[in-house]
Amino acid sequence: MKLTNLDGRIIKLLSEDSRMPALRIAELLGEPESTVRGRINRLVEAKVIEFVAQTNPIEMGFSTWVMIGLKVVLADLSTIVAELEALDEVYFVAMTTGGYDVMFNAVFENNTELHRFIVEKLGAIDGIRETNTFHYLAVPKRKIAFLPISDHDKATERKRGTQA
Amino acid sequence: MKLTNLDGRIIKLLSEDSRMPALRIAELLGEPESTVRGRINRLVEAKVIEFVAQTNPIEMGFSTWVMIGLKVVLADLSTIVAELEALDEVYFVAMTTGGYDVMFNAVFENNTELHRFIVEKLGAIDGIRETNTFHYLAVPKRKIAFLPISDHDKATERKRGTQA
Amino acid sequence: MKLTNLDGRIIKLLSEDSRMPALRIAELLGEPESTVRGRINRLVEAKVIEFVAQTNPIEMGFSTWVMIGLKVVLADLSTIVAELEALDEVYFVAMTTGGYDVMFNAVFENNTELHRFIVEKLGAIDGIRETNTFHYLAVPKRKIAFLPISDHDKATERKRGTQA
Amino acid sequence: MKLTNLDGRIIKLLSEDSRMPALRIAELLGEPESTVRGRINRLVEAKVIEFVAQTNPIEMGFSTWVMIGLKVVLADLSTIVAELEALDEVYFVAMTTGGYDVMFNAVFENNTELHRFIVEKLGAIDGIRETNTFHYLAVPKRKIAFLPISDHDKATERKRGTQA
Amino acid sequence: MKLTNLDGRIIKLLSEDSRMPALRIAELLGEPESTVRGRINRLVEAKVIEFVAQTNPIEMGFSTWVMIGLKVVLADLSTIVAELEALDEVYFVAMTTGGYDVMFNAVFENNTELHRFIVEKLGAIDGIRETNTFHYLAVPKRKIAFLPISDHDKATERKRGTQA
Amino acid sequence: MKLTNLDGRIIKLLSEDSRMPALRIAELLGEPESTVRGRINRLVEAKVIEFVAQTNPIEMGFSTWVMIGLKVVLADLSTIVAELEALDEVYFVAMTTGGYDVMFNAVFENNTELHRFIVEKLGAIDGIRETNTFHYLAVPKRKIAFLPISDHDKATERKRGTQA
Amino acid sequence: MKLTNLDGRIIKLLSEDSRMPALRIAELLGEPESTVRGRINRLVEAKVIEFVAQTNPIEMGFSTWVMIGLKVVLADLSTIVAELEALDEVYFVAMTTGGYDVMFNAVFENNTELHRFIVEKLGAIDGIRETNTFHYLAVPKRKIAFLPISDHDKATERKRGTQA
Amino acid sequence: MKLTNLDGRIIKLLSEDSRMPALRIAELLGEPESTVRGRINRLVEAKVIEFVAQTNPIEMGFSTWVMIGLKVVLADLSTIVAELEALDEVYFVAMTTGGYDVMFNAVFENNTELHRFIVEKLGAIDGIRETNTFHYLAVPKRKIAFLPISDHDKATERKRGTQA
């Protein structure tokens, strides 16, 4: 989806207060409420924006929070990713370069649950060659709203970007 | 903060629709609206819950999305984490075990911007011994709302958890 | 097993002198001997406490003392652990994260015996992908009695523990 | 200390029941009680044998159980080991080959305590180049009593041991 | 430099025969020779295209052909790259992610010359933490002319590229 | 092919200007044009020299430029190399020592194309055990013309080369 | 074979001059020549000592000198070692710990021969999981005669050796 | 030193029996004894050949036999190598590529001596960043006499060697 300038300004306001009503956004931007409401709906449908009540896994009672890197048989990569996506404990999955083919994040009530997950769930997936588990001991920053890069930024980039 | 049973039920509803008004939640749970509004405020103040308009970095124009692992001089660990937290490009920071002391995530418009970040920003932080950058090529799952572990779950866990 | 305050005080005394008679413990704690004897029996039956004559493997004539890390086929993890447990040379087995799936300790009379063990015993176990052997050259500290974390400690922890 | 044949037989009995009284051992071995008592005292003084009430760290409330490998500045190795020995959380320290210069074990109430330990205690020790932390998720075998290798075993070894 | 459609067609012809005269290119494309000559000059000045007599290092007498990966102090990265660029033996330098901060290629008459290079030239550069040298034993493919991605390709990409 | 002194002087001139006509080279070297033209043809036929219009992949629209290292089943090494050679995205392939069995370079329009390449193309090749992808963020030096080592150089080498 | 004091003194003399005649050794040690000759024969038959004309591989025309580390399927370890022993290029084979299961040394006329060896010879051996090749660029020390540890040394050792 | 055909034939005979008298070699080759004796002397003086009474370190009482890989500060490489050469325990030193800058071999009476060596000797050498120790558990092949590559071999090589 191609973002318009108006989309960008709406996203900026919602990133400051995700529960701000469409009416208030319309007032701040000087646009009709129906236009704003329509844009927000389109952004949500296109999965550009998603309204989320983000919770802290530690506060929710999960004391074991990990990132697991996998080396896999490449022919099985897509299947493995689909199987990981289907697991409740797994909340983030990425295909990656730099030492692991897949990295995913998961939370568990404790180390015993992590152990069970590795044996029963990962152990049941074909094509995993090697796993490496990284425990998160503390998470001081966690922000998930990204703003669109403005046209001004892009122009600046282009000038600086000639070095490579 | 100790979560009550009511907190848990409110979080469950908000995790399904983060923009659901307090009035609707109150109706669904059969509680006075003022009670629900009060609990939500407390949850937000205690940073147990945070309302977020989550956006997709790829759609926002960031084509370079990375996880960077750091090995550091342990005496500098706290300072390094504080410096990383202050950087705009960095949206997640964790202290970790398992091969890296710190792992953080960041997004960039392109590889040239990542290069500049490494040279200018990471290069200016003392105590980093080694960096390893993992590029996210695709991110098929990304979910950030965790529900509280219910008392029922906990009871179950306790019985199973005696093995270690 | 839920430890009582009395259990904790008994464990503390036994950790100082594991051969202290129940009668002496009862005197020191001001409890009837039958109570103390009963608690000790329960602690032993629940495997919370185990009375051991710990010996030094070097003094016993074992000149090769190792920790071996294994990367394994996850589907075979439980079987592999069971097979390792059954081996006389192996005195400690753990499922782990951080680069190895299993770590175990073993002692041998010399390197030739370690070599035979690797070829004949590990070589006979299916599902081992990679082994890495670490030799202990010197062991200046070796203590195996852990005291229960007191309630006072726990309260302190809880206040400090909110950072993650 | 050179172990006699009688020492070996005493150790064998104590390894089966570490609280067996000297009188009972004397009866079983057909030796005067004073002799047995004298040998036991000598074994304990020479630190060949140590009577321990071994407890399970998980049952004691420690949910984070780790092995930490260190790469260090070799000139600082002895000092580092001495500093680790002095730390309460650390119950085992070994100088090693095979990827780490030092490996040690420690237990913590939770990951937050481990984090504090890394920052405050390890961070205060000079000469550590790199740490790698392995979490124990489950410990199905844990035995610490080693029996002396018998003369018969030694003879057998010698014949087999000519291959290297 | 923004490439025109004509630039693309000129590059395509030169990639097939780099010594093709401008006159012949002009005939094939149905453009005036002066226009073609002018475009070629601009492409060369902008370093988009470079005419090279590529030679095979093995045939030239270099029996040691290597890729060397470096881990460096990030604050010194730019200086290190500049010093590597100035070395005659080094014919390719890249800043990289994925385990090394810098990778470069070089050729030597034999291993003794490589050894001298490591000691005298790399040893004189500050900020190198670690080097890893990979020897090329055989090079069955080596092609250095890249064609511009056509507009048609780009349209195709865009449709397929929505997955990330 | 054994290079003559004249070959060396021709290569030197062509390395300075690869489009220099044979006539001009003949004048500069004081040789008949037919001789020079004949030598150049032989050098090209023997693949000692190749005339190339080298282009910059970044300028051509490839924003993802990588080196990929492979660990492979050795019995499949030759087949794997042949399959890599046949892939359009791959412009350089080498058999190597030092951690990878094969290293190759490739360029892609973006990370999504790299992802597709890994899944569809590498995933279809049998015998690959492990891949590691290194992204080039910037390429400040890229030179591909090697001059023959002169006889003078060789004499010098021989004297210095006795140390190994 | 148990070495006598006379054996030790003979070995010491031969280590200084391996071509010293038995008669000269007998004179220096004040023993009958027949005794000395008899001891030497026994030492050679027991493979305790071997008379060798050691040559420098570089001087013999081998410009590629390597150590290759292997990770193998443990069940195949003994077979793999036997196959390596049978290869002419391989002059040293060891079963090892510390990251590789087997390490061996070999020499080749050049890198092309090493490449052929890896593809044709190592590629034909079953059970090799991973190889890593280390090139020797220079070998400043190479000594292969070890003297027996004297009784005096052993006594010293025993006193110092109690620390582990 | 340039080896003649006669040198090659002498080396071949000595490699079969290093104590063969010059007179016998002369007879077998049909050359005057004085010529053979002269060639042998020149080969020894040029260190092309060295007569050695090779002994087995295990038989000599060294139960700990290791290869140690070092990563070093490159500026200190030459000094480090010189210091290693001067150590009695070290019998082989090589500058290497492929993960370590230096590899050396050493033998020790036991692990305690190895430990002392690491702390006292390696710990006293500046510029060592990292050590990795590999223990040899068994050494089934150990041959140190290399024959010169014959002219016939070289001709064969040249034809096959064009592939790289």
From TrEMBL, chains A, B, C, D, E, F, G, H:
BP GO terms, sorted: regulation of DNA-templated transcription; response to amino acid
Superkingdom per UniProt: Bacteria
InterPro entries with a match to the protein in the record: ArsR-like_HTH (IPR011991), AsnC-type_HTH_dom (IPR000485), Dimeric_a/b-barrel (IPR011008), Tscrpt_reg_AsnC-like (IPR019888), Tscrpt_reg_AsnC/Lrp_C (IPR019887), WH-like_DNA-bd_sf (IPR036388), WH_DNA-bd_sf (IPR036390)
Gene Ontology terms for molecular function: sequence-specific DNA binding
SMART domains recorded: HTH_ASNC
Gene Ontology CC: one annotated term: cytosol
UniProt KW keywords: DNA-binding, Transcription, Transcription regulation
Pfam families noted in UniProt: AsnC_trans_reg, HTH_AsnC-type
HTH asnC-type domain boundaries: 3-63
PROSITE patterns tied to this protein: HTH_ASNC_2
Protein name: HTH asnC-type domain-containing protein
Organism (species): Methylobacterium variabile
